[in-house]
Amino acid sequence: NELGITEGMNAEQRETEYVRRDEFAQMVVNLIQQEDVAKSLETASYFTDITDSQYKGAINLLAQMEYISGSGNGEFRPDEYLTYGAACKILVHALGYDKIVEDSSLNAYQFVAGTIKLTNNVDSSVEYMTFAQTMLMIHNALDIGLMVPSYYNANIAPSYEIEAGNTFRSL
Fold first, then answer.
1. CA dist., res. 21 & res. 86, Å (int)
2. CA-CA distance, 1 to 63, in Å (whole number)?
3. What is the pLDDT of residue 80?
4. Which residues are bridge partners to 128 per DSSP?
5. DSSP assignment of 80-106
6. How far apart are CA 48 and CA 62, in angstroms?
7. Is a pLDDT exceeding 70 seen at residue 2?
8. Which end of the chain has less neighbouring CB within 10 Å, N or C?
9. pTM of the model
């Protein structure tokens, strides 16, 4: 928590508790250092069921960035627990590696997450992510090189590269 990723969540006392989907949205916003943007989106309404969530700005930002799409029917289900597959998908997006995901299945995101070592020492057999497992995955994410656009032309698909030394820890 020295980076403020779990600020206000008492994560150290909740290591064995499951992380809620809205809490993880806030963790990711803190990881990518977009708290101010998330605050500006607190009144937006990407989902019908987040009005009571203290993390609605974070949820709206991740929806706007297309890291999350909800659970259908216009809902996000903020109080449900975070699954291993959802954690992989969202962090793969945050790191910029969604460009190399073969398809939109959670298995494809989990494959990429394993390839880039995002899931090192994380138990993939769990249905829901505990704070300890989630923080381990985020810890791994801190040192993975970010995939960023290397070339862009309006007429050609952009190309991407992994920038050596450009990590969330270095931001």
1. 9
2. 24
3. 97
4. 83
5. SBPBHHHHHHHHHHHHTGGGG-SSSSH
6. 15
7. no
8. C
9. 0.94
Pick from 124, 127, 116: nearest CA to 93: 116
**How many CB atoms lie under 10 A from the CB of residue 160?**
17
134-140: long-range contacts (C-beta < 8 A, 24 or more apart)? 134/19, 134/24, 134/27, 134/82, 134/87, 135/5, 135/6, 135/11, 135/15, 137/87, 137/88, 137/91, 138/5, 138/27, 138/31, 138/91
Cα separation, 8 vs 118, whole angstroms: 24
- Please state the separation of Cα 44 from the chain's center in Å: 19
In the numeric block, which tokens belong to residue 12?
């150290």
Query: pLDDT (tens digit, 9 = 90+) per residue, 106-147?
Result: 999 999 999 999 999 999 999 999 999 999 999 999 999 999
Dig out the tokens for 33 from the structure: 């250092």
Do residues 109 and 92 lie in contact, with contact meaning Cβ atoms separated by under 8 Å?
A: yes
| Residues 160/96, Cβ–Cβ less than 8 Å | yes
Two tokens, residue 165: 């030394």
Amino acid, res. 82: L
Nearest to 32 by CA among 166, 130, 156: 166
Token pair 């954690």 is found at 87
Q: Which two tokens stand for residue 99?
A: 């460009």
